Amino acid sequence: MADLGGIEAMVLGQLAGLQIEHEVLPCDPELADTAAFCAHYGHPLDRSANTIVVAARREPGVACACVALATCRLDVNHTICALLGVRKASFASPDQTRELTGMMIGGVTPFGLPDGLPLFIDAAVMDRETVILGGGSRSIKLRVAPAVLQHVPGARVIEGLAVPAAAH
Fold it and tell me: Whole-model pTM?
């Protein structure tokens, strides 16, 4: 198991190296999943974004990280498959996510991702003044201006990467 303090240090180190302004928000690890975090700490879901790892089903090693607002769902079957050049993809399992990023679900962040892992950002994220993202571990979240996501090496903003989640 990776040293979570080391992951946080790596994430914060990349933020410093890229000179990205950010606010660190402490988080109870039991409340790190976005809905629980927002409900407990009083943050609106539409100001929070999830970083989700998606992996090809039949092509080992083909994966990406995607950032979408918490009120949206990724278009895995069309947009992401097309971006990856595969026919089928799905959300990475918690173990795959940990293996690919060194981070646990609930803490995955665009900052500190391994070189070579593509980062796709839904264009709707860019419309917010600030967003809250994972901080590398389940113990912290980061509040940033979405424009800074474009400073992450290899990041691409994609129109239609996610669609608003259906109302229930």
Answer: 0.93
